[in-house]
Amino acid sequence: MRAAMRCPQCGRAVLWTVTEAGKRLLVDADPDPDGNTAVYQDGTGTYRSRRPSADLPVMGWERLHKPHVATCTPATRPAPGRPAPAVLPAGVADLTAYRRKTRGRS
Question: Does residue 30 contact residue 42 with C-beta atoms inside 8 Å?
Answer without folding.
Answer: no
